[in-house]
Each structure stands twice: as structure tokens, then as C-alpha cells.
Sequence to fold (190 residues):
Amino acid sequence: MLSQLIAHYGYFALFVGTLVEGETVLILAGFSAHRGWLDFPLVVAVAAAGGSLGDILAYTLGRWQGERLLARFPSLAARRGQVDTLLARFSAPIIVGIRFMYGLRVAGPVLLGVARLPAATFVGWNLAGALVWACVFGTLGYLFGEAALLLLGRIAHLEGLLFALLAVLALPLLVWLRRRAHRAAAQGTR
Fold:
């Protein structure tokens, strides 16, 4: 039953989940690919598309409403100097790395839009970064699936419960990480 649900809705959930901060969803999809419920190359393609589209939307929002966003969200404004410094030091290739930097995964594309980085430059490097990101986190999920099977051995009757438990445990971790980022950003604006 669980495998049928994942096979039927998994790619859609992956796409939606990767629009904004989708590492956990992508790792779960990689695990699902290992179990044979999803196709790994398609997991990478869908995650790269979702992650890339989410960043393009954030970049566009930054170009269109950047100054208003900075005025409304001090935590975003606090990261502006960090992104400007990275952009000045590494130029456009930093777009690939920003999605791996804690605290800049969502803020980075917005701030690159505020910085008026040319759209074609952003889109090209963003697509490359999304593909690398999807490969890395999808592979981590796939390898986690391999390790889990080796550790769990012959308790296949519990795999649905374990998959659900993993998904439930990931949610508090995401909430904690988000709160921690907000607290750090709030302390940086004082």
C-alpha cells in the first residue's frame, strides 16, 4: 500500500517539496528509489526541476520586490552583505554553492535578484546547481536506503512504519533548524 502511494504521488510530492528547501523530501525520494518505488534518474530530474523553479521564482521576487522584502524582513536584509561578498569574491559560480550553504538556500536567490545579477546568468548557474544538489541529496537518500537495508536485515514487515517514522522525525528537525536560523538572523540585526 505504501509503495503504491509513493509510486503514484511521489514525483508530485517531490516536485512540490523541492520548490523550497527540499533536502528532506529529496532524501526520502532517494530512499524510495532504492526500494524500487521511484526511478532514481527521474527523482534527480524532478528534484532539479523543482529546486530550480523555486529558486527562479525567489530570484524573480528579489528583482521585482527586493527593497520591500528587505525592509519587511530584517533577517533577509542581514544576509545581504554575505551574499554580496560571496558574489564579489566568486562571481556567478557561487550560485551553485549557495544552495548548499545553511541559511542561504532560500535567501540567496532572493538576494541575487536584489543584486540585479543578470537573469540569464542566474538561470544557467542555477540549473547547474540544482542538478548537482539533486544528485548529491538524492544519492544520500539512496545510500541511506542501502545502509538501512543492511542494518535492518529481514524486518521488511516494518518498512512502511520505518518510512513513516523517518518522515515524522524529519519534521521537528526542520522546524528546529528554521527556528535556529531565524534566531541567528534576529541576533545579527540587533
